[in-house]
Amino acid sequence: MTGTDMPVPTCCAASRSGAGKRTGKGDMTAILLNILGGLGLFLVAMQMMTDGLRAFAAGELRRFLRNWSGSRWRSVATGALITALVQSSGAVTVAVIGFVNAGILSLSQALGIVFGANIGTTVTAWLVAAAGFDWSISRLALPFIAAGAGLRLMVDDERWRGLATALVGFGLFFLGLAFLKQGFGEIQAGIRLADLRLGGAGGILAMLLAGFAVTVLMQSSSASIALIITAASAGVVTLPLAAAAVIGANVGTTSTAALAAIGATSSARRVAAGHIIFNLMTGIIALALLPLMLWAVRRTEDVLGLGSSPAIALALFHTAFNILGVALLLPFLDRMAQILGRLFHRAEEDLATPRYLDRTLLATASLALSALFMELARMRGIAADLALSALHGSARSVRTLLARTRAVESLGDTIREYALKVSTGTMGRSEAQRIAGVLRIVRYLEEGSRLGPRAFSLRRQVSRLSEGRARRALEAAIVSASSVLEDVAAYQEGKEESVAALRRRLAEFEAAYQSAKEALLEAGAAHRLEISELDRLLDDLSRSRRMVEQFAKSVLAEARLKENGHQPGTGAAAREEEAAVSQARREARAARR
């Protein structure tokens, strides 16, 4: 052993002494443990590199991802570059899904980045190939580990500590490769390829499935491809079989996206589906052209003077078929995005899609305002139904309520954008005030919707409550709140009796709320309720009251907005709506006296 070689574990030293013999059971167990240990080191190294580089450059990478994904080709280049830097296509895909959900990236831009990520992830194969298998890989390991450890000890800044972690991960990357190289060298010495009988189409299919299975199990195509390249370099498998395994690993990496899409948003499912379609199509193309591509790879090696290294050949093959897949599928990117956009629809998405906001109406302020109020009425109905389902306990879960709340907020954002576009045109003071009123009503409805889960929590607690008087008072408050919300949902503009009825219902609800609050405090004072349970009930009851009042204010604001075609200034109008709610509270207190 030279001064630069890694120490050889005792188990493997023993197996080397019998390099020319058939490998025994004990030796094979030791060799497999050596390979598994190297693989474990490799996986830890990849995770450290990804986490460290993300911590070091997360903000810059996010800005780059957001700002440099305009065209299809720029999206692909962005995905390739960022994945090459962070060494994790999964991390890039998760970030892309987040940007799609936030509306920062379109689906076609996201798919372009995912396509590019498949090219970027081939950098790992080039790192493995560049490490070389004809000299001591361990020469690269310890300097990186030393540099990373030293930097981590010297700095306190989290960004630079992230870089230190990445450097240590880089060193462990080469250390893991050293153990893999050693283990596969021992296997090659004790196994004859002729004994494996892996030839023809059957062998190709077997290795394809093996590459897929290993990647699914390890959830890392980089690790499985490193394993394949190391085995091929040691002569354990032939180049065509190793290439088939690389194709399988490339397809297997879609399992991460598929698992992440289970129970996720529609946007996440569409991006995951695009990822799966791309990798499947690329895999089919590569498999169909396998002999031709391997011939082209060998010719390229000869032309560039790269020698005949299996590691370089497989890295070149991996990169080539991913680039070929992008070149063939990128022209159909927009069409794919359109098709995926029609899939995985949820009811909440249909709710969030506006029905009446037409761009052609923006040129005429009066028509655009009419469309705005029609959409506002629809939003009010959706939000009130959400609140009623929470109070009645008919919602399936808090998760369902949150999904519908997001739909209300999305529709609110669309209404706001449309209202601001209307306001950029020529309009009078009255129309400008109506726009301001629309924006305030949207805010009331959004805030009321966000409180729906608290009303749902109140309903569930009441159903389990054993204290008789408190339970009856709370149920009465819930019934009264439902009456207010039903009036909100049924409100029709221009009907003064509707507003008058809503004011009466609001006063009745306030009286029921005060009775329920009094009953809860009395039960707590008499120790018939635990303090923690009392606190939860009072908090949820208060939030439910706030929800009801926000919905009521949305109707009061709209009714005032329609009076004589104008309203007071925004601040004054908001104060009047608060005054109406306060009046209902005063009337309830007076009635209780």
Description of the molecule:
The chain is elongated. Mean pLDDT is 78; it is low at 1-22, 191-195 and 566-570. It is an all-alpha fold. It contains 26 helices and no strands. The chain folds into two domains: 10-341, no CATH class; 348-592, Methane Monooxygenase Hydroxylase, Chain G, domain 1, CATH 1.20.58.
Which features would summarize this protein structure in a list?
Methane Monooxygenase Hydroxylase, Chain G, domain 1, 0% strand, 2 domains
Global mean pLDDT = 78
Q: What is the number of domains?
A: 2
Q: Which sequence of SSEs, written as H and E, runs from N to C? A: HHHHHHHHHHHHHHHHHHHHHHHHHH
Structural class: mainly alpha
Shape field = elongated
Count of individual helical segments: 26
Kindly state the percentage of residues in helix: over 70%
Largest sheet: none
Report strand %: under 5%
Low-confidence segments, given as residue ranges, are 1-22, 191-195, 566-570
Would you summarize the structure shown here?
The protein is mainly α and 593 residues long. The protein has helices spanning 10-16, 25-67, 72-86, 89-101, 107-120, 123-131, 138-154, 158-190, 193-196, 200-218, 221-233, 239-252, 254-261, 266-288, 290-304, 310-329, 333-341, 347-352, 365-392, 398-423, 429-450, 452-464, 468-490, 496-525, 531-562, 570-592.
Write the layout of secondary structure elements.
Elements: H1 10-16, H2 25-67, H3 72-86, H4 89-101, H5 107-120, H6 123-131, H7 138-154, H8 158-190, H9 193-196, H10 200-218, H11 221-233, H12 239-252, H13 254-261, H14 266-288, H15 290-304, H16 310-329, H17 333-341, H18 347-352, H19 365-392, H20 398-423, H21 429-450, H22 452-464, H23 468-490, H24 496-525, H25 531-562, H26 570-592
Helix pairs in contact: 1-2, 2-3, 2-4, 2-8, 3-5, 4-5, 4-14, 5-14, 5-16, 5-17, 6-11, 6-16, 7-8, 8-11, 10-11, 10-12, 11-12, 11-16, 12-14, 12-16, 13-14, 14-16, 14-17, 15-16, 19-20, 19-21, 19-22, 19-23, 20-21, 20-22, 21-25, 22-25, 23-24, 23-25, 24-25, 24-26, 25-26
